Amino acid sequence: MKVETLRWSDGVLEMIDQRVLPATFIYLSYDSAAAVAEGIRSMVVRGAPAIGVAAAYGVALEALRLLSVTDESFQRGMNEGFNTLAQSRPTAVNLFWALARMKQVWQSVSNESNRQVAMCLLAEAHEIFAEDIRINRALGSHGAELLRDGAHVLTHCNAGALATAGHGTALGVIRSAVEAGKKISVIADETRPFLQGARLTAWEMVQEKIPVTLITDNMAGYMMSRGEVDAVVVGTDRVAANGDVANKIGTYMVAVLAQRHHIPFYVACPLSTIDMSITSGVDIPIEERHADEVKGFRDFHWAAQGVQIRNPSFDITPAELVTALITEKGVIHQPDAGKLRTLFS
Ligand code: MRU
């Protein structure tokens, strides 16, 4: 079964509700920028590239919704739509990248009728969607070459089809290696507190019959010390100009352990995730999510009442711990400011 994380259907955007996977598989429908922004904020859709694609459709939906209003109301409504989407989540740069691209298209056709503008924005959203799959396939085949036949690959969070328009970034590398005939088995960190590893990565791999073993986050060091991990491949939400990597909370811990055990630590990273305007990881905004996510899961809370809670949703892995960035343009070993500058020049 191919996972269609987002799909355009009869004038609305449909997205798999990732909050209830794997117990329940349902699509929810979205028809405005505000609704899509809420879908992003509440994590119906999550994962950096998927957030970017959803936001692009959110802009197109807003234009379609405003077809018959005056030019002035259209301008105002569209600007509000862009702002609401930009405030949905702070860390994944793909959101802002996609919105900037959509704004450029809007500006380039702003003299046209509302209908014409909406059609151009929808075409651009479709293009961002299709491009994401092409990019993931390209970076997947570059990354596949780094994995030996028989490798046990640890991943953190979910950087799979569910986190993108399709194929995935980190899981795209694994899928491409499997498609190339390699036997790969996956070790999925459960990824507290939102359990993207246990719920989403494990689900994707089970669907495709790629061998997968689930561990809790605090088991990774033990597995590495026993020689049971050959490589780590993770995704990213934003890479700074010096190669520092923001990804799901716990990624930094995995990178430190990987270095201790001489295990390569790879980051699958579309170019749209590299933010050359940010010098280093300290300047990447880190989302702090609601305390309830740490207290327990859904309605069941196990933490002592009254305890103070922190819930930073991402952390920064310094570039020096990154063996390579895997991009659609190729593999960048030991990334640093000079290599990233060259990549974009
Ligand atoms: O909070 P999430 O689930 O949106 O966090 C997702 C991650 O951290 C992913 O690893 C990252 O977005 C890369 S997805 C290809």
Describe the structure.
- Substrate binds at residues 46-48, 89, 196, 247-248.
- Catalyzes the interconversion of methylthioribose-1-phosphate (MTR-1-P) into methylthioribulose-1-phosphate (MTRu-1-P).
- Keywords: Amino-acid biosynthesis, Isomerase, Methionine biosynthesis.
- The chain is α/β, with parallel strands linked by helices.
- The protein folds into two domains: 6-136, Up-down Bundle (Four Helix Bundle (Hemerythrin (Met), subunit A)); 141-344, Rossmann fold (3-Layer(aba) Sandwich), CATH 3.40.50.
- The chain is 41% helix and 17% strand.
- The chain has eleven helices and 16 strands.
- Helix 2 (48-65) packs antiparallel against helix 3.
- The longest helix has 31 residues, at 114-144.
- It is globular, with a radius of gyration of 20 Å.
- 5-S-methyl-1-O-phosphono-5-thio-D-ribulose is lined by residues 46-49, 92, 157, 159, 163-164, 169, 196, 235-237, 247-248, 313.
